[in-house]
Task: inverse folding
C-alpha cells in the first residue's frame, strides 16, 4: 500500500555506534522525475531524515557511507515533493538494491538482502489479504444483510484471518531470528482465557485484565535494539503504562520499571525510553504524577544508570526532584509560620480543620480574580463542615493592595496571613498563582495545583470516600 508521510522532521539524526562499518543501498524508481530521494528512520513516534541521495548517471539513487553503518530499524524511502514513501528494513546486511515504480511504490523488488525479500513478500501477502477483506468488512457493516449472509461473510473473513495467522507462524518457525519475525512477534496479541470457572462477571473481567498485564510482554523482546526504530513500539509500551495500569503514581512507576528492566541498561533503547518516561512524567497534567518524575530521577539519573546524562543536567534534575519530593501527595505539608493582618503569629499546623485549603494568590493575577468567586462559594458551603482556607497573598511588598482586594471582594471571613520573608516561595515551590494545596486534618497533602472550581467536586468525593471507609469497618 502506498503511503504518504505527513510529518517528517527535517533533522539529521546523529548515527550511533553500529556493528556495520558502511552501507550501500541503491534505489531505482520507475517514473520518478525528481533528482533526489531522502531516507528517514523511525525513532519512537517521530521520523528523522538520515540521508539524501541524488540521481546518478544511470538514473539510480545510492544511499551510502564508507565510515558508518545505519542503526537497525524500519526506514522510509521518501519521494519528493509529495512525501510518499515505502518502508525498508535495515539490519545486518546493508548492501542491496531496491526497484519499484511511482505507480506502485510499495511493490518493491529487492536484490542482495534476504531480510528485505522476506519482508516484502510478507507485505505483498498482507496487501492481498487486505484487498479481499475490504469488501467483506463493508458488507458486514451493512445492517440490512440477512443473518445467513452475515454468517457466510464472517466465516470468509475468519478464514482470511486464519491464513494471516498461518503465514505469520510459518515466518516465526522458519525465520525465527529475522527482523520480520521480530515485527510479527511484537505486534502479536493473545486473547486471555475465558475464565469460565469464574461465575461473577466483574471478577471474570478482573481476571482477564490481570492476565493481560501478566502476559503483555510474552512476545516482545525489549533487548532487541532493532525495535527502537519502528513506528509501533512506543504505542505498545505506552498502552501498557497508560491503559493497562491503574493511573496512580506508585503503580505507574512500577509499570515503567517493569518496561525498563526488560531492556539492556547499556543499550540505546533503554536510553530513549528512560528519557521518554521521565519527560512524560514531567509534562503530565494529572495531579500527583510528579511523583513519577521524582521516581525516575531517583532510580535512573541519581544512581548513575543514565549513562548519557551530563553532570550539569543531572544536578538540575536532582535539584528539581528535591524541591518536588516534600510536596508529593501523601507527604505532610511543610509547616509555615505566618502573621495575621492584625500582626498575630500563626502557623499552618495550628489551624484546626477537617481539611485545609492552602491558597496562594495575587491581587493583580487574572486567574486569581476568576478564582475568587469560586473560592467564596466553596467556603460558604464547606466552612460548616470544618473546612478552612489558609490564604497567602504572594505580593508581600504590596500588602496594602492585598488587603484592599480582600476588603473589596469581601473575602475576609477566611484566614489571610503574611510573611515578609516570603519563605513560602521555597517551601511550596511557588512558580505561579493561583496555587492550591488541599490538606487533610493531619496536614497531609491530598491534592494540589488544582483549580478553585474543582474544589467542591474534590471535597465531595473525599467526603463520600470517607463515608464508604467508615461503613466498611
Result:
Amino acid at each position: 500500500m502506498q503511503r504518504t508521510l505527513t510529518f517528517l522532521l527535517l533533522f539529521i539524526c546523529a548515527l550511533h555506534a553500529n556493528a556495520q562499518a558502511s552501507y550501500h543501498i541503491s534505489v531505482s524508481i520507475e517514473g520518478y522525475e525528481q533528482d533526489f530521494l531522502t531516507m528517514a528512520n523511525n525513532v519512537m513516534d517521530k521520523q528523522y531524515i538520515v540521508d539524501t541521495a541524488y540521481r546518478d548517471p544511470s538514473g539510480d539513487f545510492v544511499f551510502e557511507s564508507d565510515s558508518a553503518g545505519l542503526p537497525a530499524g524500519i526506514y522510509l524511502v521518501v519521494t519528493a515533493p509529495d512525501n510518499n514513501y515505502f518502508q525498508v528494513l535495515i539490519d545486518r546486511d546493508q548492501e542491496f538494491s531496491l526497484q519499484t515504480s511511482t505507480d506502485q511504490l510499495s511493490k518493491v523488488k529487492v536484490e542482495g538482502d534476504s531480510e528485505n525479500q522476506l519482508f516484502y513478500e510478507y507485505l505483498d501477502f498482507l496487501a492481498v489479504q487486505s484487498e479481499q477483506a475490504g469488501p467483506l468488512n463493508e458488507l458486514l457493516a451493512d445492517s440490512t444483510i440477512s443473518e445467513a449472509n452475515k454468517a457466510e461473510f464472517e466465516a470468509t473473513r475468519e478464514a482470511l484471518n486464519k491464513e494471516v495467522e498461518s503465514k505469520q507462524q510459518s515466518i516465526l518457525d522458519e525465520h525465527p531470528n529475522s527482523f520480520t519475525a521480530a515485527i510479527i512477534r511484537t505486534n502479536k496479541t493473545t486473547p486471555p482465557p475465558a475464565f469460565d470457572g469464574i461465575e461473577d462477571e466483574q471478577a471474570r473481567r478482573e481476571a482477564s485484565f490481570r492476565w493481560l498485564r501478566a502476559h503483555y510482554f510474552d512476545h516482545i523482546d525489549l533487548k532487541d535494539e532493532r525495535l527502537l526504530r519502528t513506528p509501533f513500539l512506543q504505542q505498545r509500551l505506552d498502552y501498557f503504562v497508560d491503559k493497562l495500569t491503574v493511573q496512580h503514581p506508585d503503580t505507574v512507576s512500577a509499570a515503567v520499571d517493569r518496561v525498563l528492566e526488560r531492556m539492556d541498561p547499556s543499550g540505546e533503547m533503554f536510553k530513549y525510553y528512560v528519557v521518554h518516561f521521565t519527560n512524560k512524567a514531567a509534562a503530565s497534567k494529572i495531579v500527583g504524577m510528579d511523583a513519577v518524575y521524582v521516581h525516575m530521577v531517583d532510580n535512573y539519573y541519581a544512581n548513575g544508570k543514565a549513562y548519557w546524562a551530563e553532570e550539569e543536567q543531572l544536578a538540575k534534575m536532582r535539584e528539581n526532584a528535591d524541591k518536588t519530593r516534600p510536596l508529593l501527595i501523601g507527604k505532610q505539608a511543610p509547616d509555615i509560620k505566618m502573621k495575621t493582618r492584625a500582626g498575630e503569629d500563626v502557623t499552618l499546623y495550628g489551624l484546626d480543620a477537617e481539611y485545609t485549603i492552602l491558597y496562594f494568590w495575587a491581587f493583580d493575577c487574572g486567574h486569581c480574580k476568576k478564582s475568587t468567586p469560586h473560592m467564596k462559594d466553596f467556603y460558604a458551603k464547606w466552612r460548616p463542615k470544618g473546612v478552612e482556607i489558609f490564604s497567602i497573598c504572594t505580593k508581600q511588598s504590596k500588602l496594602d493592595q492585598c488587603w484592599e482586594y480582600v476588603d473589596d471582594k469581601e473575602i475576609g471571613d477566611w484566614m489571610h496571613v503574611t510573611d515578609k520573608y516570603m519563605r513560602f516561595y521555597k517551601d511550596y515551590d511557588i512558580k505561579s498563582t493561583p496555587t492550591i494545596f488541599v490538606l487533610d486534618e493531619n496536614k497531609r497533602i491530598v491534592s494540589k495545583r488544582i483549580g478553585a472550581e474543582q474544589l467542591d467536586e474534590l471535597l465531595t468525593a473525599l467526603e463520600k470516600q470517607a463515608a464508604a471507609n467508615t461503613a466498611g469497618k
About this structure: The two ends are 61 Å apart (CA to CA). The longest strand covers residues 46-54.
